[in-house]
Fold these 4 entries.
Entry 1:
Amino acid sequence: MGKNKKKNKKITKEMKKDKSTVSTKMKTKEYEKELAKLHGELVKLQQWVVHKRLKVCIVFEGRDTAGKGGVIKAITERLSPRIFRVVALPAPTDREKSQMYIQRYISHFPAAGEVVIFDRSWYNRAGVERVMSFCTEEQTQRFLDRTPGFEKVMIESGIILLKYWLDVSPEEQTRRLESRIDDPRKIWKLTPMDLKSYCLWDEYTKARDDMFAKTDVSWAPWHVAVSNNKKKTRLNVISHILSSIEYKELKRKKVKLPKRKVKEDNKKGGHAFNLIPEIF
């Protein structure tokens, strides 16, 4: 565990560097060009996952506004939701609270030929639940002690596990939260929980560092992405996923549409459609 502590200190040091070097704006045209290339590779990965019946589990964690949702959307927008499944669980029900903590997450683990992406995961216990006092300190420590062993069992069962922490600066978090206040597209993202969490920056930092110290292990390491620049973060994370899973492009037959005949009378259809107004 000594090596992990040194590694965590190095990560923390790097995250404290001047963030201006990573917040340089990226032109939308350049971003879309690079994203299109990566989407092509993700499709190849998707086909390989199905072909080889791989089981992939990707975890995204980070503070509020760190950009988890945007990264996940960038990954999945050109892929099949039946193969790349996103899991974003709500608060546990009374029944789930009575279960073994990890139980409700296990039911969403990937089967052969699937990639499951967790938008927040079992690591809620080490972060949100701990800081907001939704669990006891004893429960948190028990979770941190047992999670590396649990994840080793996951990997030994054949699951490829990737864990990502998106790290946003205090200044950028403030800017993003403020942008949600008056934007009708974003107001749903600003919850009472976000406002409470905003005042607890140092508490979340300690919780993150404790989590890294206990769960950043050789068989399931944490990968940190500084996420002040949304576009670059998305490209960097997708690139890292592609480099972390071995895959090959499968040969496929050339596709040619078959000939068909459509009678003139059938082009409009025989039913009187209730068309929506063409406003645009």
Note: Residues 14-22 have pLDDT under 50 and may be disordered.
Entry 2:
Amino acid sequence: MSTRPFPPQKQMTGMLGHPVAENPIDRMFDAVYAHYGLNWQFWKSDIASSHELMAAIHGAKALGYAGFCITVPYKVASIPALDAVDQDVQDIGAANYVTIEQGRTVGHNNDGKGVVKAISKVSPIAGKRVAMLGAGGAGRAMAAEIARAGAAHLTVITRNEAQGQEVAEMVRRVTGIPVAWLHWEGDVTIPEGTQILLNATHLGAAPELGQVPVDWDSIGASITVVDVITNPRITPFLETARNKGCPIANGVEMLVQLAMQIFQAWTGIIPEEAVFQDAVSKALAE
């Protein structure tokens, strides 16, 4: 009588955030792991509070995770629970993924690198005037990397003045470009001369699909409009912009670009972009 050996335990990876249900990242990563023959799995975890976040980070380390992503609203709050952070996290003040190296959690941030690559497929950033709606954990990283990519000027638009001014000061400190803060009240008027407009808020995500409150009369067809939302690919914000004739860049493209870097950091494998693009399209049932 022959016996079959049990398969090895799957190598776990995942994402911590709230909410996470509509994010396609788990299905995308699992498809890519399967493509490369890896006995790995990606597990999304909806973490209800900052108190539980600390327990989840320590739990992931104890369970032998290779690493995990961090999404809203914990990209800043997660830092005190990590054993170390890289220079990007030190500069930006937010982390979006973690590697676990020799039992130590190390925080990294490539949110901005992902959005820069996504925008660059549509429009050059160097020399452009950029306006960004929101300044949360993802927005902090995006603002810094867009500035590093050569933007001529950045306007940070937030409802919370302290948050917006703090991010503006961070960008000035780490990049040296001129940055202004604009109060977001009602339908915000986008500053004249803006050439790239970025929604770095959660407004427009499934299932609510809410509108981003902006004055569309202040957004001309020459402005490149960008959204960080990953589901749906074309948000109401991007659909309105596209109907005005604006070039658009979507959050799914940003997700692919940053996920490829995270996959390589965790596995040591340099992935093919086409594999990730196909995986995310299937995850979104496109």
Note: The chain is about 35% helix and 20% strand.
Entry 3:
Amino acid sequence: MDEPYPGVRRLTFRLPLAIDHVHCYLLRGSDDSWTLVDTGLGVDEPAAVWEPVLAELDGPVRRIVITHMHPDHVGGARDAAAVTGAPVLQGREDYEQCVRAWGQTPTAAGLARFMAANGMPHGQVEESAGQNAKLRARVHWVEGPELLEPGDEVDGWRVELLRGHADGHIVLLREGVMVAGDVLLGQITPTIGLYPGGRPDPLGDYLETLARIAELAPRLALPGHHGVIDDPVGRAREIAEHHRERLDTAAAALNEEPRSAYDVSLRLFESELSPTQRRFALAESLAHLERLVYAGRAARGDGGYVAA
């Protein structure tokens, strides 16, 4: 545990994923209690993980806030709640997506069909589905959390809805400091993927989010991965430019013959990827292709995409 900002402590947990760690944050409260933001993956023995954390604090954890429903952020919510006795708070829209993703068994099969329909080879679909099933077992989400809306306050921190990386992603903002989840990352760009049941234009949502960050003008962002971001507005502009370039690359990959999102992903993400990473690449390619459709630069046709 370290202290990246006065009154904020950072926990870092290892992950068995392509990105090998996640940061969770403890915010000192007005009554010397603490608010925990995000929880890592679920574990078999929650007390072994969370009791040592509580032993380092000089006050109780009063509440747990989830920025978004991805496994490495919501996965340990039930564990942390059980050990601390604290309620879980989650954005209303994010919770709805959480229920769809983790509370409905047919979702996994639907995702596999979705990937296959967008060109992923059968063997890669099967291997990716197997890895996803293992990950699902570590998502210990909480049913019936206290729901948050944009503009709500959590012990002096304002809730902002910043879509894109997840449909209902929220951040906490106070005095120019943003507890950012995965809205901004410094060393990599957040994944912006299109998935079944999600919003239809996640990249369009995310470009709006990046513009909103410029309006909010935080002076510091505490992200879910890698280091503190000292210039969040500048980083938002860099990421927006990255996506503009990637949109141009996706558009250049199209002609009059329909191309699947999987084929386009091989152009956008040329390195060798595991089936799970290729699934993320396919979903992000779909997000870019749909943004091109909404912008009038591409069209859907015969199971793929063509230049407009």
Note: The longest strand covers residues 21-28.
Entry 4:
Amino acid sequence: MPHLHHAASGSLESMLLTVIIIFAASVYLRGWLHLRWTSFRIMNGWRAVSFVAGLSLIWVAVASPLAALDHELLTAHMLKHLLLMTVAPPLIWLGEPVRAWSQCLPRFMRRARGAAFRWPSIIKIGKALGQPEFCWLAAAAALVGWHVPAVFTVAMQSTALHFVEQSSFLATGLLFWWPVVHPWPSILRPDLSMILYLFFATLPCDILSGFLVFCDRVIYPVYLSSSHLFGFSALGDQQCAAALMWTCVTLVYLVAGAILAMRLLSPEKPLDNRWVPAVLHVNEAAPNVQQSLEVF
């Protein structure tokens, strides 16, 4: 089955996405350096490493040579999905991008943002989007919906729909990991429900990957003509992709659950007030404390 992606348009899209990712990283690092100069406790160095690593994995998924291979191998296609949905989002949130990016906004924009966040409608929308139930359902729907054979085939043949597919994986991945990492406003102690949240999140992946592994026929015939070029049969490629998803998702969620469990069981540390003056120094010229803290 012929693919409608052309090398020229793919190259142009890759260049555009590369520029966007570099710009996002540059703005983040500028804000991170400003916070780092204010106080070493505000933004640790590992957060910047985590954010840049997350952006790098997004680049690998959408703008590197791997982006072209996803039309040739289901395994490469599945690897892209895992990077966009499972690996890159938690790294992005661990970098606390909201706090860093806000440093690069002009003062009037920070004030407007603070005022907008106090609107009842904005608060309601934010609470709804941050509900674990909604985040779980959105991620599960994206995972299962895009892997329905008919939908999968149409997306592989349409450049626009393929872009929507990748964007939805990244967006729902960010949504899914938001209540787990909770980057803003950050919390010191996780909730026990988040461990159960991660456990139940493995179920859609287990069902889908188990079906693909043990199925004795090719579910996605779009790869029948291309997988053999890499030494795979179409069925072997399908089983390899499913095994990759099964292993990667289980491992990532297991590590995240173990970290949450250790934080939950560790003794709570009191707030170190020695660093409060350094935090307030960021906007010490502001007319009141509320404006001083708007930067966060």
Note: The radius of gyration is 21 Å.
